[in-house]
Amino acid sequence: MTAQQSPVDGDAPDSGEQRTMNYGKENVAVYRTYATPLEDVRTIPESSFDGRDNVLFGLDVRVQVEGEEFLPSFSEGDNTKVVATDSMKNFILHHAGEYDGATLEGFLEFVGLAFLDTYSQMSAVEVSADEIRFDELPVPEDDGDGYEASDLVFRVSDNESGYGSISLTRDDGTAVITDQTSGVTGLELVKVKGSSFTGYVQDEYTTLPEREDRTLYISLDIFWSYDDPEDALGEDPEQYVPSEQVRDIAHVVFDEVDSNSIQDLIYQIGLRVLERYPQLASVRFEANNRTWLSVRDDLDGDASVLREPPAPTGFQQFSMDRGDLDEQ
């Protein structure tokens, strides 16, 4: 269920369906310097990532709140219970200074709990965010013998970013996590050879030629959920799945596998993710095919000239759980 479709308790008038009623604030950009470092994460063979300094901790946050007490604001123009979305923005910014954890998901739960603790008219809250990443920049070492990463100057990254979403609701007066998603989005990967696309339906509508070996360019979003949502918070770093490691798994599998389709490729990535992280319940993908088209393939060796594909482009969506891994 998307954020825009989340229902509140209670039926809509003259309808058997639950009413959709929520509001909130999005695109709240928040930056924290010298947040708690993420340390002691479990390493995997596909990745060198073992933690992050969090000298710059940046998030683009969205918060959505629900509650039956907000109905008069819709039906009667009565704002008595309404928390202004500008106040929500300020609330998020303030609590970025109070958070002493090290992960995106941990902050989302922290601020979500704070909303429910502060405003009794809120019965449920969903907080999500895209990570705003920064790249380390090399500077000369003090002795002039080589380079090291600057701990003061960073570059805003144009690459993939982490994602997280935490939904909380009141249960007998206690806030509990009802839904959790983590992810890495905006991966753009190109494999110059070692991918094919053959054996698909050939009929009167088919104009695409089969390709035994092609340059494959995809964009990819990967999302995952834990068996125990508490593991997403990073309080036990050994159980936390860093988005950087999942990104690296995608790179490695793309390099290793001679796939016959994007569907085949993402399935193999999913198997590897589930194999590496037994604490995960499921993984899902949203992929887009941006494969370049050949202009010249008459050059020496494997050289070719390619161009951007025209619109429209194909996409793939797929989800997997531990049952897929058990079948292997």
From TrEMBL:
InterPro entries: Uricase (IPR002042). Its EC number is 1.7.3.3. Transmembrane segments: none annotated. GO terms for molecular function: urate oxidase activity. It is an enzyme of class 1 (oxidoreductase). Residues 1-22, 307-328 are annotated as: Disordered. Pathway: Purine metabolism; urate degradation; (S)-allantoin from urate: step 1/3. Keywords: Oxidoreductase, Purine metabolism. GO terms for biological process: purine nucleobase catabolic process; urate catabolic process. Pfam families: Uricase. SUPFAM superfamilies: Tetrahydrobiopterin biosynthesis enzymes-like (SSF55620). It catalyses: urate + O2 + H2O = 5-hydroxyisourate + H2O2. Catalyzes the oxidation of uric acid to 5-hydroxyisourate, which is further processed to form (S)-allantoin. Belongs to the uricase family. This is Uricase. It comes from Haloferax volcanii (Halobacterium volcanii). The lineage of its organism: Archaea, Methanobacteriati, Methanobacteriota, Stenosarchaea group, Halobacteria. The gene is pucL.
